[in-house]
Amino acid sequence: MKRTITILIFILCFFCHSVNVSADGEIVDGNYQVANDGLINAETTDANIEGIYEENINTDTFDAEDDVDVYPVWYEGSYKSLKKKNIYDKSASSKDADVNNSSISGSKPGNTVALNEYIIIPMMYHKLSEVPEDLGDFCVTPQIFENDIKYFKQNNYDFMLASELDDYVPQKGDKKVVITFDDGYKSDYQYALPILEKYSAKATFYIVGEFIDTYDYMTKEEIKRLSDSPYAEIGNHSYSLHKKAYDEIYNEVYTNRLNVINDFQKNKKLLSQITQKEITSLTYPNGLFTTKLNAILKTMGYKTIFSTGSIKYRPGDIKPTGRINRNYNYTLEELLKIELV
Fold first, then answer.
1. Which of 324, 334, 332, 339 is nearest to 75 (CA)?
2. Contact criterion met (CB below 8 Å) for 306 and 322
3. pLDDT at 65 (0 to 100)
4. How far is 328 from 125, CA to CA, in rounded Å?
5. How large is the average pLDDT for residues 61-73?
6. What HEC string does 65-133 produce?
7. Quick one: DSSP state of residue 279?
8. Given pLDDT bands bounded at 50, 70 and 90, which one contains residue 114?
9. Contact in structure between 124 and 325 (CB atoms under 8 Å)
């Protein structure tokens, strides 16, 4: 009899420990519980990643109304501005044409540097391929990428890693370019890295955790070798969020912020284990974000955060910085005329 009572007590204690209960007795499902209005506990568990990642973030300073600030992906925004300005003429386009002195100007950071007195160009690449069928909105040839790098070098642009942008203090006459690659394609290691090393240029590579070691994407060993280069760094592009459809990502970002934070933190831990380095830069899948989510992630150690929309770099801005997507159907000259706002 005593043995039966002991077993029942053990089962009851185990059940109580396994369920999160809010202050008013309501059961809170999942790995997350908002303890009060100012505290978020986000934790991640994964069978392949030992341990539990936990963060406590004070969010009292963030306005609730900012949380609806979701921006469209690049190809739904800035390409329309190209067509609106009538500068895209397919018949006159040459994919590998030389680029004129077109640029994107930075905005005024406080009272230090006047508007248009410095230039920052944030570039976004995806896959590099020599297969004609691959080329399109998110894939260009290695030759085009090399020509782009040559253009920036010949026009005296300084290459910055994404993580360096956070500490950057604009100076009059600065010309900076931030090269980024999204998703973690095998071509990052196969094509992009040798070109970067050839021209002593820098780039940041954003990896999706669940893409690692799958077809057409880098292996853990390739990511580590890429990370070891002085011309490359690894950034966070979500663990599994990017595998979802656009509408699903939108809903996650808008209604399940803690799930999104958890997903990023899971990937951060994985990438840190692979590279043996701190991961301090992040890009949003499909460029979708809210200003509150962005502000919270900033408090969690992400120095630089990118979207994909036409959002100009502004030091200390609550919004992420947008990027110019390197589309095969546009020349670099045309793309550099996109106005970031």
1. 324
2. yes
3. 45
4. 10
5. 45
6. HHHHCCCCCHHHHHHHHHHHCCCCCHHHCCCCCCCCCCCCECCCCCCCCCCCCCEEEEEEECEECCCHH
7. -
8. low
9. yes
- Greater confidence (42 vs 151) lies with 151
pLDDT tens digits, 229-253: 999 999 999 999 999 999 999 999 9
Which of 326, 280, 324 is CA-nearest to residue 305? 280
- Over range 108-127, report the average pLDDT: 73
Residue 149 has pLDDT above 90, yes or no: yes
E-only strand ranges, the chain: 20-21, 27-28, 33-36, 39-46, 49-58, 119-125, 127-128, 139-140, 158-160, 175-183, 203-207, 232-236, 281-283, 304-306, 324-325
Largest separation between any pair of C-alpha atoms in the chain: 90
Q: Tokens representing 179?
A: 């090269």
Are 96 and 333 in contact by the 8 Å Cβ rule? The answer is no
